[in-house]
Amino acid sequence: MGEEMILSAGVARVDITPPLGFRMQGIVRRTEGATGVESPLSATVLVLADAETKVVIFDCDLLGFDLPLAAEIQATVAERLGTEPHCIALGCTHTHNGPCTIRHVLGGPHDIGCPAEQRAAQEAYVVHLLAQLSDTAALADRRRQPARCAAGRGEVQAAVNREEKNDDGKILVGRNPEGTVDHSVDVLRVDDLQGQSIAVLVGYAAHPVVMGMNTYLFSPDYPGTVRRIVEDVTGATCLFLTGAAGNQATWSFLQGDWGEKERMGGLVGCEAARVFFAIETRPHEVVREVEASLSGLALYHKEFVDGPSHRRLQAVTATVTVPLQPLPSLMEAKNILQEASALVQTLQSAAAPMTKVYPAQLVERWAKGVLEKVASGIERESLSFDIVGFRLDDFALMGMPGEPFVEIGLAVKAHSKALHTMFAGYCNGSLAYWPTAETVAQGGMAVSSSLQTYNIAAPPVAETADIIVGAFDGVLRQLDF
Q1: Could you tell me which of 54, 109, 263, 340 has the fewest CB atoms within 10 Å of its CB?
Q2: d(CA 191, CA 148)
Q3: Do residues 276 and 189 touch, judged by C-beta distance below 8 A?
Q4: How far apart, in whole angstroms, are the C-alpha atoms of residue 144 and residue 63?
Q5: How many CB atoms lie within 10 A of CB 377?
Q6: What order of strands is seen across the sheet that includes strand 145-155?
Q7: Residue 457: left (phi > 0), alpha (psi -120 to 50), or beta?
């Protein structure tokens, strides 16, 4: 087997749990810092390479990264490992029980309500984290050994659509059993040439927010349970990628009972382990032989054959631009700010708790920004970001930043000609929800309060999902899928 035909794989993990007292990100009313650790937070890196291409896949127990930070990490790792930034999938589980790593929004460093000393500590953590991720990727790269990969898919009903319509017609974050959902458990098994496990990549589309607004312990949420179960059963180092989960929750959502986190993760983890054992990475033929004992026997066994470790490893990227809806008129913008400021003043005068003041301050901050843009003559804006697509033989991994609705992931999978397609949201940055036209029309958190938490001037247009899926179609064509 020539060197140019050999696929190699290496994996490594590092503990990225910050000191206690750090504010956690993702639930804006939870302003106090973490008081303990339910389970350590980790970053796991898988490197897949041949003579021409080197792909690096991260699984980080974090809410996400702002786009500049994600780009800095990609550039740093790419230079160190001798690859290209677009060959790096910087996945985050999106746990809401992790530290602030999306700066300027969602309680991150430099966001409003963050004391100066904690801001400095968070920035120091981010600097240290970048070094940890680079070092861990380099370690995984040094550990590479000849490998083969194969993929499979299972199904488990742990996820539920979370856009629930209330009796008054308003959309709540809850349970919508009739809504669109993706129950697929996607698995990529990575073995050495003798079939011994190296790593396993698991994907599932459900928000890692089993634990709720009143939990103050660092935790990877249910993805940590998935990894633990898969590793205990298979012996492979497990990475978890959260799929298109913008409108997806687990059936247990925002709980106070840590056993619910185990239950949801257990469902996904056990199915992933089952799929893992159904996958054979070694090329083989099934041979039938007839023998006789007291009874006649038809015996079947695998006869392994030589063959290339892989046929094709490729990485492709594309830039997507999603228009936002028009900004309000100058008079409307002034009225929005006036109402927001009045609410903040009322709450502060009444000595209201920060759980109420801070969300109101976020709205005020957002309203000020909108007014400044309108006053400067800006009528509408757009958001741009990069998507990635990796091909390994008949397996495809498609990734994008932000919080895509499940319909996007399902459409990309449906359009792909790959035998197995895994979709990862929360990959290479976080900047917005990406809703369907239905949600844009009916409203809901993804096109209302998320504007304030992500500090986006206006909601995305109704065509958002179609624009993103169309861009992925182009990536799939480049991959010959």
Answers
A1: 263
A2: 5
A3: yes
A4: 28
A5: 7
A6: 88-92, 54-60, 42-49, 8-15, 145-155, 184-192, 197-204, 237-242
A7: alpha
Measured torsion, CA atoms of residues 463, 465, 471, 473, in degrees rounded to the nearest 10: -120
**213 in Cβ contact with 254 (< 8 Å):** yes
> Token digits for 64?
């996400």
Distances from the Cα of 366 to the Cα of 126, 161, 274, 464, 473, angstroms? 25, 28, 47, 22, 34
* Distance from C-alpha of 336 to C-alpha of 339, rounded to nearest angstrom: 5
Phi–psi pair at 99, nearest 5 degrees: -75, 170
Say which residues have a Cβ less than 8 Å from residue 119's Cβ, sequence separation at least 6: 109, 110
Q: 354: how many CB neighbours lie within 10 A of its CB?
A: 14
Q: Which helix (H) or strand (E) holds 303?
A: strand 296-304
Does this model's pTM top 0.85? My answer is yes
pLDDT tens for the chain, residues 1 to 481:
444 579 999 999 999 999 998 888 888 878 888 999 999 999 999 999 999 999 999 999 999 999 999 999 999 999 999 999 999 999 999 999 999 999 888 877 777 877 788 888 889 999 999 999 999 999 999 999 999 999 999 999 999 999 999 999 899 999 999 999 999 999 999 999 999 999 999 999 999 999 988 899 999 999 999 999 999 999 999 999 999 999 999 999 999 999 999 999 999 999 999 999 999 999 898 999 998 878 889 999 999 888 889 999 999 999 999 999 999 999 999 999 999 999 999 999 999 998 889 889 999 999 999 999 999 999 999 999 999 999 999 999 999 999 999 999 999 999 999 999 999 999 999 999 999 999 999 999 999 999 999 999 999 999 999 999 999 999 999 999 9
Q: Which two tokens stand for residue 336?
A: 């929005």
Edge-to-edge, what's the strand order for the sheet holding 171-176? 171-176, 159-165, 248-250
